[in-house]
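Re: weekly structure request thread

Next one in the queue (239 aa):
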Amino acid sequence: MELRARSAIILTSGGLDSTTCLAIAHDRGFTPLYSLTFDYGQRHRQELLAAERVAAAFHVKEHRVTKIDLTQFGQSALTSDIPVPKDRTESRMSADIPVTYVPARNTIFLSYALAWAEVLGVRDVFIGVNAVDYSGYPDCRPEFIAAFENVANLATKIAVESSDHRFAIHTPLIQRTKAQIIQEGAALGVDYAMTHSCYDPDAQGRACGRCDSCVLRKRGFIEAKIADPTIYSPREMEE
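Done, posted below.
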């Protein structure tokens, strides 16, 4: 199999972080780019449309939407009928693992990306996890990424048979604040109006402005001193 050393797969959710991650991979010269999005039964399905917009904007070679059903396991406000937390302070967000955590989500997503990478002969996978401005998710930590990268190079036929093929999981945003992420993306020409971050959008797909993801996103634009292009639901002002 021909190895495409400069190709990369980007895990894209249509959100601010993964879109910036895609822009960074593009800027670093990885080509062609492949994007992988998951329809896992999430309640905030507007992100699937956003991921399509992002893939088209960056002219990726192939954008795949993989359907899996994480609703069958539940225990997350993103996949079950559990209220999404609203109006929380940052100290409350980081006090414990929130109910918006989806069990094993990034482990599952990276496993799918790894399988596709092995088939394509791609060595590099990008994921927009962040360990600074995040809501306490254990699968966003540097030690998790390092452990998964080690597993990837132990568990795949291509890595075992070829010492030249070592998988790398790239996390260019992992130690950056939301403001720094937005500033870098803006410098790379990212149009954040095409992205979606809200965990609980209204029927028209407008952001609630009050969930953890919206709170961090809004604060990021303020601190970055960049206008926030997000369209928020009128209910943000009513509640």
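Residues 111 and 178 are 26 Å apart (CA to CA). Residues 105-120 form the longest helix (16 residues).
Next request, please.
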